[in-house]
Amino acid sequence: MPDLGFRERMTVTFDVLACLRPWLIAALLVATSQAGSAQDISMPNDIDLQVTLGFSEVFRLGYWAPLTVNVINHGKEIDGELQVQLTYGSELDDAVFTKTERRRLELSEGSKKRFRFTVLMESFGFPLRILVKNAGAVVAEQTVDLRRKFTDARLLLVVSRDANLDNLNDTAAESLRVLYPHPELLPDHWRGYDAVTAVVVHGISLETLSQRQFDALKKWVAQGGKLAVSGGPDYALMRTPRLAELLPASPSGLVTIENAEAIGAALGELLPRSDAFHIHRLNVLEGTARAVVDGHPLIVEGRFGSGEIFYLSFDVASRPFDNWLGLRGVLFDTLQIAPSIRKSFDARELRKPSVVPLLVDHSSAGFPRLSVVIVFVALYLGLLATLFRINLGRSALRIVAPLIATPAMFLAGAYFLFGVVLFPTGASALITTLVEPLGNGPYARAYFDIGTFSNKRQPLPLVVESPEPAVIASQRPQRWGKTHSYNIVEGTNKIIDVDRPRSYSLNLFHGIDIVIHDVHAELLDSSTLRIRNNTGLDWGVAWLVANGTVADLGSVAHRDGDWQQLAVGTPVAEIRDAAWPKSLALPARLTSAQRHLGAVLLEERLEPYLATPGNRTALLVAIIPTPVRLGATNRHWAQDALGLLVIRLEAIASGRRSAS
After folding, report:
1. Which residue, of 199, 207, 349, 463, is most buried by count of CB atoms within 10 Å of its CB?
2. Are 329 and 264 in contact (CB under 8 A)?
3. Strand blocks (E) in 203-343
4. What CA–CA distance (Å, rounded) separates 1 from 12?
5. What CATH class is the domain 347-357+426-514?
6. What's domain 152-343's architecture?
7. pLDDT digits 0-9 by tens, 21-72
8. Are 65 and 54 in contact (CB under 8 A)?
9. Residue 101 and residue 489: Cα distance in Å, rounded?
């Protein structure tokens, strides 16, 4: 065949393409049709997602927020899952990870289902993604731009049909923003109120809330929230079961008030003259009347755990209070809205150093230090290089061979001995818990750290048995590696699953929960302590920390709510001694790792409590079984877990101390 030039070759090429053009067009049309079909399957238009973030589409940056997702199915039946994805970290530090909350989704044709989540809104730099998956494929997706929904202001929620408290809005640097959420969209997890300064309820029955929503409101108040309930024309509303459970007073009727100026004087603000109006006649139950006119309380304050509940006998939405400028000062004073901004759960708790890495370090204390290994290797290599430089003739191989073979055999043996035989195979879990009772109620705040560790690259699904823990991965740089993306699956228990797990990498999670932990304590005098342990747990050992000393109380058994008296022994340690936690006698049944963990917990977690000034504060400290446990699927893991109970006791005028 003759050699063709460039022009001839191009002519032949165009002729061939012209002949194949019909077939190429047909193939392109088929490919386009298939791609369109795949897109129709993966992203159909018959699924609608309605997303509501925060309260009235507003959330506070750096705080947890409620998220409501309504999934409406106009097409075929769905048997898949709903996913909520939030990205945390910084791309500049190469420390970005994703938290994915997953829920089972079953929807028949023409049905609708509502899902509620509680998410930590740390940044608006990454969008919020909502995904619906069916048979492993994404069938619906919605992205929420967070930049238009965040605020730096504190939030005050008004749950009412007609109350208008817009005059409470504050545009100062430390501002306050009033929002009016629909009762159906209130959080069903107490952590959802994280950014809320106070809640005002007016003319709404709490019976309309679901049981989870009501429990979330109670737990939020118990851990330090503030709830105000305003009276209205229908005082019988205050007698409904849920409000009656919370309110510190009970209404018995209405009282006609004709002297508005007297009401203003009692509340500390000038109230203009007006026509006669009504307030509730209150019977104070367990609260304190803060303002009284003619024997009728205007505000009754009661304690609920560590929080406060206020019963306002007047109607904030009716004359003469609806347009009263002084109402702002009254509510600010009643709710004690301080000018300082409260730190969020994330800033207050999740940035604390965890004791879990300390325990991991202790577990490997028998291994030689890295510096020792480096020195050994340097000396060995130096000796080897020296021998090579010496002219040993034919005998050099006989001398060098053992220098190479002996360490090689030792390395293989050390790997199998320390890495396979002695090191725990499979997964290990470490759990530490700090339990802090909330006032005199049955609730307690439980802070916990959970670390998972494995010498194999394997899935580590962690099942946590705790009522409703709020969990997030550690974001602090550590030598154990950067934070991995992870999934949280909600069900009977909470399942935490790390994406792409790595061997010899610590997965560290922090959490907080409000748990039922019914315990009360009273210090009768300097030598006698009265305790009611109704937690269902036996305490291994307890101490009384007071006046700079630590006294041993021994073990404390669970007695179904019966009171028991304990004698305060002689001091066994002094706080000024830095090594005092290591000098305390821990129960013999604890393992070596648990003993070390107990000492670390006492040393690290008690520091904020011991910093309280004055000698009128005592601490009851106990080593307890952790109330946060792993599920049945993790029973075969190597586990070390321990809890620390801390109760603050304060002196009163009679010389008697009680749990605060």
Report:
1. 199
2. no
3. 226-230, 249-257, 277-284, 288-293, 296-304, 307-312
4. 14
5. mainly beta
6. 3-Layer(aba) Sandwich (3.40)
7. 555 555 554 444 443 333 333 345 689 999 999 998 999 988 999 999 999 9
8. yes
9. 6
